[in-house]
Design brief:
- The complex is a heterodimer of chains A (467) and B (72).
- Chain A is an alpha+beta fold and 467 residues long.
- In chain A, 36% of the residues lie in helices and 19% in strands.
- Chain A has 15 helices and 18 strands.
- Chain A has a seven-stranded mixed beta sheet, sandwiched between helices. In chain A, strands 1-2-3-4-6-5 form a six-stranded antiparallel beta sheet, with no helix packed on it. A two-stranded antiparallel ribbon of chain A has the order 7-10.
- Chain B is mainly α.
- Chain B has one domain.
- Chain B contains two helices and one strand, in the order H-E-H.
- The longest helix of chain B has 41 residues.
- The radius of gyration of chain B is 20 Å and the shape is rod-shaped.
- Chain B starts with a helix and ends with a helix.
- About 17% of the residues of chain B have low confidence.
- Classes of the chains: A alpha+beta (467), B mainly alpha (72).
- Chains A and B meet through helix 4, helix 7, strand 11 and helix 8 of A and helix 1, strand 1 and helix 2 of B.
- Strand 11 of chain A pairs antiparallel with strand 1 of chain B, so a sheet runs across the interface.
Chain lengths: 467, 72
C-alpha cells in the first residue's frame, strides 16, 4: 500500500535509495533529497553538471521547492519538483534501438559526470525514460562524487540491464529482450553467457564484459578474496567506458521477417480505403478531443501519427518487435516528439511487478488513456485468442475513456484467413453481438462503414457507471 | 575448443589477480566481487588501448590541420 501523509503519497517503487525518494503532492511529482545526499546534490548543481545535462536533454530538469513540502522534514535537505514524464515505460516494453539508445545515453551521462568529478552510482535501465522521443535520465540522485581511483560502482548493473539483453537480442533472438520482465535487476550474466552463440566470444569486448564477467562472478562468489589497493586510473576508467560504448554501438539488429512486419502490404485494404479510414479516424479523434491517445495493435504507427501529429501525446503499442523497431526509427529519423512506440502483448499485458507487486506498475495502473484506438484488432483477440466480446469490452473500458474501434466481420477475408486453420467455434462473433457486448460499458456515439470494405468504425464513450 | 580458450584466458587472469589485489574483502555469494575484480583488471587494458586511440586521434587531427592549412 502507498503511504499517505496528508496530501502526500509516496511512490511505491521508490524506496531503495537512502539518498531520497519520490512522492506525489497535489498532482505533481516531487523528490525528497535527504541530508545524507546533501554533498552530492550540491556538487551536481554547483559543478555545472546538472545545467549541462539538463540543457542537452540527458537529465530531467527540476525546480527546487519549499523544504516544508518534505515528507520527513527531519531527514530532508531539499525537495525538488522534476518535470513530469507523461508515460513511464519499462525496458521490457522497448524495442532493440530504444534499449540501445538508453544504454548509450547512460554511458554519455557517465562520461559527462566523470568530467565534472562525479560518477553514476547506478545504471538501472528503469532510470531512463523517453521524453520527446529521446532517452533521458529521470533519477537526479544517481550521481555521487567520484573518489579518485575507485572503480565504476554501476559496471555490473550496466552489463546486466543493457549490454546482456542487447547482445542476446542481436545475436540469439530478438524475443530474449523479454527476459528483462523476469529478471527485474537485469539479465544474470551467466544466463546470458550460456544463451549466446560462440561467435560472441570472438568479439573481445563481449568476451570480456559478458563471458569472462560471468565466469569471474562465479569463480569469486563465496570466496574470501583480496581486492584492490591499486586503484583505477583516470585513463583506465575512460578506457572502460569507451570500450563499453564501442561494444554497444557495434550491436545491430535488422527488423524484418516477423509476422506483422509487412502488414500494410498484406491487407485487404486498397490505398483509397486506407486513406478513407485515416480520414474517418481523424474525424472521430476530433470529436473526442483527447489529451492522450493509446493505439493498440498499432503496427508501425500509421494511424497513431494522426493523433501525434496534432501534438497529442500518443503511445503506439504492438506485439511485434520489428514493427516497434521500425516505428521508433521513424520517430528518431523525423524527430517526432509526441509518439512513443512500445512493445506489448495484449493477451498478456505488463503486470505489476517487483517488491510487493508495486515497483513496476501494470499497464492498467499507468492508464487510462483519454482515447484508445483499436483498429483491425478485435478479430485477432476474439478469434485468434478466443476472448469473448464481453471481456474485450470490459478490458477496453478499464484502459480508456473513449474508444475508436473497428469491427471486422466474419465475412472479411482477413477473418476468413484466421478461420482457415481452426474450427469456427465463434457463433456469437457478429456485429449485433459486438454492439450488444460493448453497450454494457460504452455508449455508441457514431458508426461509419469504411468505404469499399465490410468493416465498420465506431466511436464510443465509456458509460459513467464504469470505473 | 571455445571452452578451452576461455579457460586459458580466465586462468591467466586468475593467476595474475593475487598479485594485483592486496586488501582483504569478503564475498558471500556476491556477484559484485567478481565484477569488481574483472573491472579493475579490464580497466588497465582498456585504459592503455584508450590512450593509444587518443594519441592516434591527436596525430590524425594534427596532420589534418597541417594539410588543410597547406591547402589554403
Amino acid at each position: 500500500m502507498m503511504r499517505t501523509l496528508w496530501n502526500k503519497i509516496k511512490e511505491p517503487g521508490s524506496f531503495r535509495d537512502p539518498a531520497g525518494f519520490l512522492f506525489y503532492r497535489e498532482g505533481s511529482i516531487c523528490r525528497q533529497i535527504n541530508q545524507v545526499y546533501k554533498e552530492n546534490y550540491e556538487h551536481l548543481m554547483n559543478s555545472g553538471l546538472y545545467a549541462e545535462l539538463a540543457k542537452d536533454g540527458l537529465l530531467i530538469p527540476h525546480e527546487e521547492t519549499d523544504i516544508a513540502d518534505a515528507v520527513n522534514s527531519d531527514k530532508a535537505h531539499q525537495v525538488i519538483r522534476p518535470e513530469k514524464i507523461s508515460f513511464i515505460s519499462y525496458p521490457y516494453e522497448w524495442c532493440f534501438s530504444q534499449l540501445k539508445d538508453a544504454a548509450l545515453a547512460t554511458l554519455t551521462i557517465q562520461k559527462r559526470a566523470f568530467a565534472h568529478g562525479m560518477s553514476l552510482k547506478d545504471a538501472s535501465a528503469y532510470n531512463i525514460q523517453f521524453r520527446k522521443g529521446r532517452p533521458i535520465l529521470i533519477d537526479t540522485l544517481s550521481f555521487e562524487r567520484y573518489q579518485e581511483g575507485s572503480p565504476w560502482a554501476a559496471y555490473r548493473q550496466f552489463c546486466q540491464h543493457f549490454l546482456a539483453p542487447l547482445v542476446l537480442m542481436a545475436f540469439t533472438d530478438i524475443r530474449l529482450g523479454q527476459l528483462l520482465r523476469v529478471h527485474i535487476d537485469g539479465i544474470p550474466l551467466d544466463l546470458a553467457s550460456r544463451l549466446l552463440p560462440s561467435k560472441t566470444r570472438l568479439r573481445f569486448a563481449l568476451l570480456s564484459h559478458i563471458h569472462l564477467h560471468a565466469k569471474s562472478q562465479k569463480y569469486f562468489a563465496g570466496k574470501r578474496v583480496r581486492t584492490a589497493e591499486r586503484k583505477i586510473s583516470h585513463a583506465s576508467m575512460l578506457g572502460l567506458i569507451d570500450n563499453l560504448e564501442g561494444a554497444v554501438r557495434k550491436l545491430k539488429w535488422q527488423p524484418g521477417g516477423t509476422e506483422w512486419d509487412a502488414y500494410y502490404e498484406d491487407t485487404n485494404y486498397s490505398a483509397e480505403s486506407l486513406d478513407e479510414k485515416e480520414n474517418l479516424v481523424a474525424n472521430f479523434l476530433e470529436q473526442s478531443d483527447p489529451k492522450s491517445v493509446w493505439d493498440l495493435g498499432a503496427n508501425t504507427g500509421r494511424f497513431s501519427r494522426i493523433a501525434s501529429e496534432k501534438g497529442i501525446p500518443t503511445l503506439s503499442f504492438d506485439i511485434d518487435p520489428a514493427c516497434v523497431e521500425r516505428n521508433y526509427l521513424e520517430v528518431v529519423g523525423k524527430k517526432e516528439s509526441h509518439l512513443l512506440p512500445l512493445l506489448l502483448d495484449l493477451t498478456n499485458p505488463s503486470p505489476g511487478m517487483g517488491w510487493n507487486h508495486q515497483e513496476r506498475s501494470s499497464l492498467r495502473d499507468r492508464g487510462p488513456a483519454d482515447t484508445m484506438l483499436a483498429l483491425a484488432l478485435i478479430h485477432h483477440l476474439a478469434i485468434s485468442n478466443n476472448v469473448p466480446l464481453e471481456r474485450l469490452a470490459d478490458f477496453f473500458a478499464s484502459l480508456c475513456c473513449s474508444l475508436i474501434i473497428e469491427f471486422v466481420p466474419k465475412e472479411d477475408s482477413q477473418v476468413q484467413r484466421l478461420l482457415f486453420s481452426r474450427e469456427d467455434v465463434f457463433p456469437n462473433y457478429t456485429q449485433e453481438a459486438f454492439e450488444d457486448a460493448f453497450k454494457v460499458c460504452f455508449t455508441i456515439r457514431d458508426r461509419v462503414k469504411i468505404p469499399n470494405t465490410q468493416r465498420t468504425l465506431y466511436l464510443m464513450k465509456k458509460n459513467p457507471s464504469e470505473k | 575448443m571455445k571452452k578451452i580458450g576461455d579457460a586459458k584466458i580466465l586462468l591467466t587472469f586468475l593467476f595474475c589477480s593475487p598479485f594485483i589485489f592486496c586488501h582483504n574483502a569478503f564475498a558471500y555469494l556476491d556477484p559484485g566481487t567478481g565484477s569488481y575484480i574483472l573491472q579493475v583488471t579490464l580497466a588497465v587494458l582498456f585504459g592503455a588501448l584508450f590512450m593509444i586511440k587518443t594519441f592516434w586521434e591527436n596525430v590524425k587531427t594534427f596532420f589534418r590541420a597541417l594539410f588543410s592549412k597547406k591547402g589554403k
